[in-house]
Request: fold
Amino acid sequence: MTERYDLVVVGGGLLGCLTAWMAARDGAHVLLVDKDQVNQHASGQNAGSLHFQLEYRMVEAGEEAARVAAEAMPLHLDAAAMWARMEDEIGEPLGVRQTGGLMVAENADQVGMLEFKAELERSWGLDVRTLDRTELDAVAPYLSRNILAANLSALEGKADARIAAPAVGRAAVAA
Reply:
C-alpha cells in the first residue's frame, strides 16, 4: 500500500518544520523529509534573528525599490505577531525574545536613509523609530562611537536556533 500525502516538505530546517506544522495543524497529511537530521544545517547554525525591518539592500536600491519592498510589510507584521504567540501554540519553549532590534548608521547619508526607511515602515504599521547617538547611549551603550544613529523596532529579537526547529518539528508530528 502506498502512503499518500497532501504535502511533501523537503528540508527540515526552521522554514520546513514551520511549513509542515502549519499544514498539519490545518488538517493536511504531511511528509517532512531531510537528507540529514532536522535542524542540522543552516537553521541550527544561525543567530536566530527575528528581523522585520526592511533590509539595507532594499533601501539602498533607491526610494522606489524601497516602496516596492515595503509592500511586503503586512507579512513582516504577521510574522512578528506569530512569533509572539508561537511558544503558546507549539507548547514548547522556542527561546523567543522580542526585545528589540537595531539597524545602524555610520554616516549622514545612512542616517538619512534610516529616517526615510522608518517613515516608510511606519506608514505600513511597523513601530520603528530613529534614535540619535544620545538615545543610543541609553539603549545600547556598547555600540561603537562610529555609530551616529539607529532604527529601533521593538518587535525584533531572537529565537533559539538550536531548539526552535526541532520543537516545531515535534509539533508537526503531533498535529
